[in-house]
Amino acid sequence: MTSGFQVLIADDHPLVRGALKQALQQELQNVVVYEAGSLPEALTCITEKGGDIDLVLLDIHMPGMNGFTGLFTLRATWPDIPVSIVSASQDIPVVRRSIEYGAAAFVPKSAPVEQIGEAVRTVLDGGMWMPDWAREALENGPLDDDTTHLAQKIGQLTPQQLRVLNMLTEGKLNKQIAYELDVTEATVKAHVSAILRKLGVHSRTQAVIMARELQLQEPVVGV
Predict the structure, then answer these.
(1) Most buried residue, 38, 165, 199, 223, by CB count within 10 Å?
(2) Is residue 31 pLDDT above 50, yes or no?
(3) Where do the domains of the chain lie?
(4) In this predicted model, what pLDDT tens digit does every residue of 75-113 receive, in sequence order?
(5) Fold of domain 6-139
(6) Is 187 exposed, middle or buried (0-12, 13-18, 19+ CB in 10 A)?
């Protein structure tokens, strides 16, 4: 068995975190598990640990995520930490985009404990994992060009620019963004200008529309 790893579970449902933690402790030896209920909490936890986290189990529907924008933010901020998406959704487009946007695994929340353990061990060993049904579907249908093009553009943004873009999609003004990030309004304006340039758009509204392409509908069933 794999041993001595530090794993962060980021999910806004305490019961889900508890179930995942139990699964990890059952399947791995000497695993240390941290928990977060939102993307900001997850980023803070990783920062407090000095980036010494071996794997993040990430729910794409929790607060602060704004769909896949949160995944981009986490991957850009801590590129050396693998991320496994854990989701109630089993839609193939969601699985496909998760992998395209940098996740090392896609694990359904309905997966049995043994399968969760297999997924985690595979990623910790440097591999990529997804259920057989998802792998077969992805092999039969590549991403469309628009999705790939969007991923390339968003991937150019720095972690701070991604945070600003997140806040723009939430309708926040420069003054509010500056306050939350503890920077000047001039700095926010500079970030917005860089975002527009990298995304190839001419207004905040166009940037928000593009960012919302990364958002997701809540899954109909499960948590």
Answers:
(1) 165
(2) yes
(3) 6-139, 145-214
(4) 989 999 999 999 988 888 888 888 888 899 999 998 999
(5) Rossmann fold (3.40.50)
(6) middle
3-state SS record for the chain: CCECCEEEEECCCHHHHHHHHHHHHHHCECCEEEEECCHHHHHHHHHHCCCCCCEEEECCCCCCCCCHHHHHHHHHHCCCCCEEEEECCCCHHHHHHHHHCCCCEEEECCCCHHHHHHHHHHHHCCCCECCHHHHHHHHCCCCCHHHHHHHHHHCCCCHHHHHHHHHHHCCCCHHHHHHHHCCCHHHHHHHHHHHHHHHCCCCHHHHHHHHHHHCCCCCCCCC
